[in-house]
Sequence to fold (535 residues):
Amino acid sequence: MKDTKYIFVTGGVTSSLGKGIIAASLGKLLQARGFRVTNQKLDPYINIDPGTLNPYEHGECYVTVDGHEADLDLGHYERFLNAPTHRANNITTGRIYQNVINKERRGDYLGKTVQIIPHITDEIKRNIKQLGSKGEYEFVITELGGTVGDIESLPYIEAVRQLKWELGNKCLIIHLTYVPYLAAAKELKTKPTQHSVKALQEQGVQADILVLRTEHNISMDIRKKVALFCNVEQSAVMQSIDVPTIYRVPMNMQLEKLDEVVLSKMGFDLAKTPDADMGKWISFVEKLENAKDEIRIGLVGKYTQLPDAYKSIIESLIHASAYNDHKLKLELILSDKITDENVAKKLGGLAGIIVAPGFGERGMEGKFSALRYARENNMPCLGICMGMQTMSIEFARNVLGYADANSTEIDDTTTHNIVDIMDEQKDVLNLGGSMRLGAYKCKLKKHSKAHEIYGKDHISERHRHRFEFNNEYKEEFEKAGMICSGMNDESNLVEIIELKSHKWFIGVQFHPEYSSTVVNPHPLFISFIQAAIQK
Ligand code: GLN
Fold:
């Protein structure tokens, strides 16, 4: 639609300033004023998508409902805006080049020399405008990954320069920088910000709004100075100060008038624009901040050295704990280090555990020890994806008595392959590449715990895996008390298992963590925390 407004969020000085949080906070504030908003992330790396990136390097791989393996910032967007993102919300340099090269091979460029400008920049612009083209959104907020000055970001900044020229005040640039505090001099320093704004200017882009990340309050004098040096109005220089929870950021940015400044710069009459209704959001943040009782949960996984690898699970636990008026005390437990001998010591003081997703063999044995401990000690336990797969293997080994039970992913010589690639699954894989990705339907068994938790017969949840529960063992599992309470009927695949005679022991083949949001915490996490709270 021609009236869609495009806002860009760039970053300078250092990485990890929280551009995604600022972009999502602005999205939230505009949405709370009744606008239709979506957030987009442009990633400067050459991978086609983050699907093949090691979680240690890039944190979690997020998955959209339409099966796109995406940057974890899309998780922030969904948690903040309570609205799904899609494939078009995340583009990488790899994808841009792939599209351009495919066009070149098809002869679309009619013999022209294919160059960064205009062909790569045109493809970037097409991908940005695509989100606004259907009239679905009034604002498209696009976050540019990386830091100004990086070689990789140059084509993106150039595309933004061209768009600003084309779209005038329907386009706005927010630049996020860092203002360090020098303890010895007792001073906040703005020089890095000035240099960063200059680096943008050298590339032809003038920032409209500056957001200064800081650990200390930034005075009016400093703001005035930054405004003067950077060609930005003083009211458009704002701070984003460190906060104990990222969920405070939208409220702080509202105090800084980020939404007001954006709207007035883009030609809106503030007197005629509704105020932001942040009621539900604020009550969540207050619950989160005022909770006194702690709930100690263990997250058993193999990437625990980098909590970002489990971003969505951790945020889902935070949502559900706040919902239940508890403060989450999370312990990240490296599964490689758990053994039958030390498991009681490692898990003994916890109120519940999550057994995390993951690929490959490392850390599997520790997951079995943790699961056995939780199962035998009536400790609430949620197994997610590989967590559910290990849950079923542990059950087969220690309850059904199949000592060699395993997954064919780990051991393809076993005679008891509890987790396998199923024939039914092969059809799905042939259609969709090498993994079951994105949202699939699941039917819940009446009178099961899962049915009680969701309160409905049919659900849809997101997947990211190759292997499945082996249906050959379904009957035997159910006879022994492990119920298959969620099924994908179309492909006859087990989606949820639960132990009948246990306080709360549920494994899900899908990833509920991708769809927990601030105003809609996920029912499985809510119920898991409730069970953990009960003594
Ligand atoms: N390794 C498993 C599979 O591919 C699980 C993957 C996951 O936990 N996301 O089936």
